[in-house]
Design brief:
binds acetyl coenzyme *A, mainly alpha, 3-stranded antiparallel β-sheet, 7% strand
């Protein structure tokens, strides 16, 4: 592989260096393009061919279906690690020692209460408010309750900000659920593991002692791990770009939550379940919905299918499909929705429309089925995604600030009116 790329524009030719990643990915470094060409830029809506940064956090190969966090295969992490270990690895670069994870957990749990006044903000939300809106607002509100800005050159300040949000975010998630269900806004217990504590905060009933079901705990650990990072996706890029203006960590995360909410991104898990329900209520005719998905005049898309980068299979979907089967079996749940999901998957995998476009089930095709089996309402599914993605967003924000990346500010090609004369209102 050469180490320069040549560009010819009319008579002039230019050379640009190539950047190589540790897995041999190649990019053309066009940092000097505009300067040397006197104003020429590149255009790439949706950034399908543009790298926004170099990063040492997550590697994924969409063609081969590979996903690794800090070099560790997602399959190993999902099988052998728990969510907090994975969070630590994402944020700090390596899997923790026993001592490091113990300290991390203690520090997080000591931050796992939020100012009681946050409950007043919660009270002002209507009960039917979407919990993603609530979560995004409350994460932003945390800035008001924790106003000191982080000196990113101080390891200690960075660490404190990280354990603070890792401690408080699950409380907000649990409260968003409990508010919807009319349950008291409780706290967890310092003595519990990170994920068990989240479960207690979410599911504890006021009139009985909470005992975590180990099957659900394992499944939740897996789901959170599988969602923990996915390099420069829409919400992560949002967190990095907001943070690049030196907005604080919590404000950047709040923006990321809003980006995640959309049905083409994290909101897909809610959309999948709603789609499967609609198909069931309509008689379960999967063929009818396959036809709708292929009809270019019909806006319907098969939710949970397709991915911007995975063009072979989504390795997370493979793990989650097995987990969904296990959870439903262990809990003794027979869910007709699962049959519809399996039917759609089988048809899509054999249909030239989906095969030619390399459309495979993504992580969210099966995650909603597990969340449903856990008793989590559909509107909370994307919130659960946010809970899993939190360490990834933190790691990416930290990397961006530590690398001293410049403010994110894309350019454009203007296609509007040329200069025209202003006509006063009375003459228009
Ligand atoms: N159902 C039917 N057709 C589809 C689907 C789908 N789910 N996804 C893509 N296509 C078709 C498009 O119509 C297009 O067809 P064409 O070439 O004939 O015009 C072709 O496949 C390529 O699709 P694009 O939208 O250009 O692909 P892109 O990479 O921009 O979008 C996306 C990826 C947004 C995920 C898309 O596949 C989609 O909308 N999927 C459904 C929503 C979803 O599941 N999102 C979750 C993604 S995973 C995550 O965020 C965690």
């Amino acid at each position: 592989m050469p180490d320069i790329a040549k560009l010819q524009i009319g008579e002039n030719s230019y050379e640009f260096p190539l950047v190589k990643g540790s897995e041999n990915e190649v990019a053309i470094d066009i940092k000097t393009l505009r300067g040397v060409t006197n104003g020429v830029i590149t255009i790439d809506p949706g950034y399908k061919n543009s790298g926004s940064c170099t990063s040492s956090i997550t590697f994924l190969d969409g063609e081969k279906g590979i996903l690794r966090y800090r070099g560790y295969a997602i399959e190993d992490l999902a099988k052998k690690a728990d969510f907090l270990e994975v969070a630590y690895a994402l944020i700090f670069g390596d899997l923790p020692t026993k001592q490091e994870i113990k300290q991390f957990h203690t520090d997080i749990q000591s931050q796992s209460i939020v100012d009681e006044d946050v409950k007043k903000i919660m009270d002002a939300f209507p009960k039917n408010a979407h919990p993603m809106g609530v979560l995004s607002s409350l994460t932003s509100a945390l800035v008001a309750f924790n106003p000191s800005s982080v000196n990113v050159d101080s390891k200690e300040e960075m660490y404190n900000a990280i354990v603070k949000i890792m401690g408080k975010f699950p409380v907000l998630v649990a409260w968003a659920l409990r508010k919807k269900q009319g349950l008291p806004l409780n706290y967890g217990s310092k003595s519990l593991g990170y994920v068990e504590n989240i479960m207690k905060m979410m599911f504890e009933q006021p009139n009985e002692e909470y005992v975590a079901n180990p099957v659900i705990k394992d499944a939740l650990d897996k789901l959170l791990i599988l969602h923990a990072d996915h390099e420069q996706n829409c919400s992560t890029s949002t967190v990095r770009i907001v943070g690049s203006s030196h907005a604080g960590l919590f404000a950047s995360l709040s923006a990321g939550i809003s980006a995640l909410w959309g049905p083409l991104h994290g909101g897909a898990n809610q959309a999948v379940l709603e789609m499967l329900e609609a198909i069931r209520e309509d008689g379960g005719d999967t063929k009818k919905y396959m036809a709708k998905a292929k009809d270019k005049n019909d806006p319907f898309r098969l939710m949970g299918f397709g991915h911007r980068v995975y063009k072979n299979f989504d390795p997370r979907a493979t793990i989650i499909k097995v987990a969904a089967d296990e959870v439903l079996k262990d809990l003794g749940i027979e869910d007709p929705i699962l049959d519809i999901a399996r039917g759609l998957e089988q048809e899509a995998l054999n249909d030239p429309y989906f095969v030619d476009r390399k459309l495979y089930p993504n992580v969210d095709f099966y995650s909603g089925i597990i969340y449903r089996a856990m008793g989590i309402p559909v509107e909370m599914f994307t919130v659960m995604f946010a809970l899993g993605r939190l360490p990834g967003w933190i790691a990416q924000w930290k990397e961006m600030r530590e690398n001293k990346e410049p403010i994110g500010r894309p350019r454009q090609i203007y296609t509007g009116e040329n200069l025209r004369e202003f006509v006063p209102l009375e003459q228009r």
